[in-house]
């Protein structure tokens, strides 16, 4: 490992006190890849957890009788990860990247262990929040360490490795999730519980590897920790996300909803005031927002995060609820996304490293993501899988080109002394967007699904043939408790769809698809907004080699 032109060992660099104005540590490609091996194992934990859980979430929600409340499982993780992410940036600037990264892994493992023994959907959501406290540091700290060791122009090459890790998790996750979710019991526990328990030995391995290979230079930066800002941010974000998930139940203008709006807005105003008072010690330093590239990167991370996470939570439901796939089959069906993502990520990373240009890749990536949502918005209950795969190819290619270029844009003009805080901040905006997307898209889906299914059932029951089908013993048992006396439906558990005659299930499938079409169309509108920002606001600059 080297500082300036003098070669030194990693430990010597780590213990040496480099000047604040010193340039970045220059490492050989082999040395960077060695460091990356430690980072990627930690990141694999977070990436695998997301893909494993998403593929098995329907099984988990059905077992815990909380299908319509499943958004809590996703949003709880994202909320705590979102709030913790900026703190990780500050803590790593003060104490060094490695010890803080290790703490993130240990927190993640503790949350995973608790999730494995959850007894209700809300208890699982609470334990997922603990997981999120650790997961919030895994991605942002990895990107920060890469930024520490490379020039802006080189980053695309190495960020491609990280995206490839996520792609690998996208392949392994659905398979592992499908295998475990498909087991009624395993060693005395429900199969899906091993999805979380598996993280514990993986975390132990990650800790061992990181202790051996993750030796990076650390130049201590004096920061005060902005605990007041973190608390105000929690007060601002949590009520707004709660109403995004519960609005359909409470009523969007009910008393509890208005209280949530007021509390959230108050928290956000306090957060802005605290950040201004804290100055350089702020959780999200105001000076960063004076950097145009950072502002644009933060906005794009937020907007693209809405579309990305909203789609990633809705599409598996289409495959499992509408197409009747098992969690494993649904995971395997997403392979076109993975293939496109890996291919485009590696290609774009090399092109950026060679040319120093990134805007074209950014615009085309967001455009491809938007196009995928348009394809998904035209899905029907009887759409062939090859048509779904077309949308997946566009989505995978779009994310492969867009996500690494947005991060590169946000980091491109940030001083190295602020790299930890800045990288954490842009990941904060992406997580925030993801939280909003997951909560709002699922809330919109189940708000519409009940009404649209009821409408189709009303029409179907007008036909004597349909009534006779539903009165058959097997169908009657499956529908017991689903059809309420007032004509509405109970959608908290979707297991009944597996037992229904396809003819009796058709109104349910059509109602779900109709609601999903609106959700995907909303996502396309969000993607189009990001496309306009990227095309007309992002400058076509060349990345520096310094």
TrEMBL record:
Keywords: Cell membrane, Membrane, Transmembrane, Transmembrane helix, Transport
Lineage summary: Bacteria, Bacillati, Actinomycetota, Actinomycetes, Kitasatosporales
Region of interest (Disordered), ranges: 1-22
Name of protein: MFS transporter
Gene3D superfamilies noted in UniProt: MFS general substrate transporter like domains (1.20.1250.20), Multidrug resistance protein D (1.20.1720.10)
Family recorded in the similarity comment: Belongs to the major facilitator superfamily. TCR/Tet family.
UniProt xrefs under InterPro entries: EmrB-like, MFS, MFS_dom, MFS_trans_sf
Main subcellular location of this protein, as a coarse class: membrane
One Gene Ontology CC term in the entry: plasma membrane
Domain Major facilitator superfamily (MFS) profile: 35-542
Pfam families found in the cross-reference section: MFS_1 (PF07690)
Topological category with respect to the lipid bilayer: Multi-pass membrane protein
Highest taxon of the lineage: Bacteria
Biological source species: Streptomyces corynorhini
Any one GO molecular-function label of the UniProt entry: transmembrane transporter activity
Subcellular location: Cell membrane
Transmembrane segments: 32-57, 69-88, 100-122, 128-149, 161-182, 194-213, 225-244, 250-274, 294-319, 325-349, 361-379, 385-406, 518-538
């Amino acid at each position: 490992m080297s500082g300036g032109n003098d070669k030194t060992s990693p430990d010597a660099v780590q213990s040496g006190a480099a000047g604040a104005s010193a340039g970045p540590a220059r490492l050989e490609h082999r040395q960077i890849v060695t460091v990356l091996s430690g980072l990627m194992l930690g990141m694999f934990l977070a990436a695998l957890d997301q893909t494993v859980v998403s593929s098995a979430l329907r099984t988990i929600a059905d077992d815990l009788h909380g299908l319509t409340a499943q958004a809590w499982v996703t949003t709880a993780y994202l909320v705590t990860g979102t709030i913790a992410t900026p703190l990780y940036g500050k803590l790593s600037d003060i104490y060094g990247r490695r010890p803080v990264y290790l703490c993130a892994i240990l927190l993640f493992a503790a949350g995973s262990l608790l999730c494995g023994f959850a007894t209700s959907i809300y208890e699982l959501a609470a334990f997922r929040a603990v997981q999120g406290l650790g997961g919030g540091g895994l991605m942002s700290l990895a990107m920060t360490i890469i930024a520490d060791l490379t020039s802006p122009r080189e980053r695309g090459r190495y960020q491609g490795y990280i995206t490839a890790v996520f792609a690998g998790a996208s392949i392994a996750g659905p398979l592992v999730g499908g295998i475990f979710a498909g087991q009624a019991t395993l060693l005395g526990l429900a199969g899906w519980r091993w999805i979380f328990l598996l993280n514990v030995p993986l975390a132990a391995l990650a800790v061992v590897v990181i202790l051996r290979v993750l030796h990076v230079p650390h130049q201590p930066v004096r920061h005060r920790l902005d605990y007041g800002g973190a608390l105000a941010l929690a007060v601002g974000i949590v009520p707004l996300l709660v109403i995004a998930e519960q609005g359909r139940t409470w009523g969007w203008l009910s008393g509890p909803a208005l209280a949530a709006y007021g509390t959230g807005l108050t928290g956000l105003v306090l957060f802005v005031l605290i950040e201004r008072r804290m100055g350089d010690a702020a959780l999200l330093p105001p000076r960063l927002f004076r950097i145009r590239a950072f502002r644009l990167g933060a906005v794009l991370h937020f907007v693209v995060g809405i579309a990305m996470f909203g789609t990633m939570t809705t599409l598996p439901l289409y495959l499992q609820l509408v197409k009747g796939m098992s969690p494993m089959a649904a995971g395997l069906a997403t392979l076109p996304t993975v293939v496109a993502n890996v291919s485009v990520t590696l290609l774009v990373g090399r092109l950026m490293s060679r040319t120093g240009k990134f805007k074209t890749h950014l615009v085309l990536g967001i455009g491809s993501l938007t196009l995928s949502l348009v394809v998904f918005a035209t899905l029907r209950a009887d759409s062939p899988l090859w048509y779904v795969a077309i949308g997946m190819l566009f989505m995978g290619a779009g994310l492969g080109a867009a996500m690494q270029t947005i991060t590169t844009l946000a980091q491109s003009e940030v001083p190295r002394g602020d790299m930890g805080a800045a990288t954490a901040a842009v990941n904060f905006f992406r997580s925030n967007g993801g939280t909003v997307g997951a909560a709002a898209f699922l809330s919109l889906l189940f708000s519409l699904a009940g009404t649209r299914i009821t409408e189709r059932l009303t029409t179907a029951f007008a036909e004597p043939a349909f009534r006779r089908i539903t009165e058959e013993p097997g169908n009657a048992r499956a529908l017991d408790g689903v059809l309420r006396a007032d004509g509405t439906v109970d959608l908290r558990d979707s297991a009944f769809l597996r037992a229904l005659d396809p003819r009796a299930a058709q109104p349910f499938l059509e109602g779900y698809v109709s609601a999903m079409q609106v959700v995907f169309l909303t996502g396309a509108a969000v993607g189009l907004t990001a496309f306009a920002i990227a095309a007309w606001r992002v400058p076509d600059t060349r990345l520096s080699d310094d």
